[in-house]
Amino acid sequence: MKSSTSVVSPQADQRLLSLDFFRGLTMFLLIAEFTLLFEHFVDPAAPSWLHHFGEQFHHVEWIGLSFWDLIQPFFMFIVGVAMPFSLGKRQKRGESESSIRNHVFRRSFLMLFLGWWLYCMGAGEIVFKFQNVLAQLAVTYLLAYMVMNKSFKTQLIFSVALIIGSDLIYRFFGVEGFNAPFTPNENFGTWLDLQYGGADMGGHWVSFNAIPTAAHTIWGLMAGQLLLSQKSANEKLKMLLIAGAIGLVAGYALSPVIPIIKRICTSSFILVSGGWTFLALAFSYWLIDIKKWTSAVWIFAIVGMNPLFIYLFAHIGGADLMKTVVSPFTTSMLGWTGEWPMKTIACLITLYILWYLCYWLYKRKIFIRI
Fold it and tell me: pTM of the entire structure?
């Protein structure tokens, strides 16, 4: 796989339906979380067979990996995949390199600002936290752009260096009380956040995660450049599968020495989640762009066409507002079914309303971007 020496590609204006599907499905699951649907999957009143399934939609407390731990890597990766397409279109329209660079820096700043603003909204006061997906993307997007026009070898080396460098910092950080690399709140990431008052002592998330997880966005960038290349569809699929297999084998092989911990993005976590992400894209590409199974792509794709809007809307209370509107009707009409079915159905109806909002915007060609 070779990277282009220019942002632009002859195929940069084409639509990659598998990317639309992958991004849309990821966003659909994210907004489903805001409806609290997944909480009802693990409710004691839920059918027992649903509990194990529901646990996969919650983060592992510390060591280990669930499906939900892959959602943020999916999103980081997807942003990288889209970069050669979106920035390539800008260059094809005649925008200068400086104009594109300014756009990247402006977008990065706005994502950082919005990520910080969401924490302030939740706290009701000014706080300084940068652990959420938007704040993390602000950094990973910028780091991926730095190597966008470099060779495949340079991109790979840079991504691996970020992972290894992060691991070494955690291992050899010498401040007493924060030199236990794989212990909650006693590691370098927590110490760093404490320096500016932004530590998440309860959830153990750290803002330094943006550095190692930048590998996901860079790998997404490399995958996007591969998909825009002149290679055959089967060659592209093969390379995506190989990359995924390498990530899984390397990550799980390291896990006895470096535990898989998403909350501080350990090396093994980055590799394993990266492997699963490559395989998820490969499956989407095989199913949709090779086998041409496109009949239901639009259902999820329209959610992915307004990802920033629907994420912010649901995050700042839009999902709660919709549920407040829905609940009186489900209570009066479905109360006879019992509390658990009634509340679960309310979540599903709320999710449909959020989806329909995306559909409404799509039909009117309203796309909110930064």
Answer: 0.92
